[in-house]
Structure formats: structure tokens, C-alpha cells
Amino acid sequence: MRTTVAKLAPDTCFWKNKKLEPLRRASFGVGAVGVNQIGTVTEAIEVVKMAKDAEWGVVISQRSGETDDCFIADLAVDLATGQIKVGASSRGSKVKEKQNQIQTIHVRSTGRT
Predict the structure, then answer these.
(1) Digit-coded pLDDT (tens) for 53-102
(2) Out of the domains of life, which is the source (predicted)?
């Protein structure tokens, strides 16, 4: 029998709301970080550090209406989050560009396809 593990990923607003401090100590295991929700790239980096300090995983998340810009893919790789949420492949070139960027970074860094 195969076991599936689901991850509950609170969004960036969860991390920034001081009233939710007791919940942040709970065992969610992963947090979603949307740069557009948090405000600045610097603040997003701080939230990722906070999540990692709590030994949580991090999902870098695109906002709705995302463009073809691959910055979100670069950020996920640079912050070593290991996870990114960009939508379904069927959504077209916007998602494909980000997937291709991650693949390109992987090939350049490892020399493997």
C-alpha cells in the first residue's frame, strides 16, 4: 500500500501576522511564500529564512496573473526552497517558461539533463 503525504502550506500573510505566532509553532511543515503578498524581495527572503529556521519547507508561489518573467523560478533556486508553485503545464507558456528556467539552472549547475 502506498502512503501519500499532504502538506499544508500557509501563505505569506500567515508568516507576517504577529497574532498567529502560536500557530507558527505548530507542525505545518511547509509554508507558501508569495513575493507579491509580502511586499519586497528582501522581505520574502526574510520570511524564507524564518521558515527554514523553524525547519519548515518553503514553496515559492507565483501570484495569479503571472507573466512570462522567470524571476520566481530564479528566486526559488537561489533560496534553495526545492519547491515552486507556478500552476499547471496546461496553462501555457507562462508556466513552461518557469519550468524551462529551472531545468536550465539544473543543467548548468550539475552538468546533467
Answers:
(1) 878 788 888 766 667 778 888 888 899 988 888 766 666 677 788 888 88
(2) Eukaryota
Separation CA 59–CA 3 (nearest Å): 22
- Write the pLDDT tens digit of every residue in 20-34: 665 655 656 677 777
Contacts of 48 by beta carbon, 8 Å cutoff, 6+ apart: 33, 58, 60, 79, 81
Instruction: Determine the Cα–Cα distance for residues 62 and 32; give it in Å rounded to an integer.
Output: 10
Cβ neighbors of 61 (< 8 A, separation 6 or more) are 11, 12, 32, 33, 34, 84, 85
Distance separating alpha carbons of residues 100 and 40, to the nearest angstrom: 25
Q: Whose CA is closest to 76, among 96, 59, 89?
A: 59
Q: Give the strands of the sheet with 82-85, arranged side by side.
A: 30-34, 57-61, 82-85
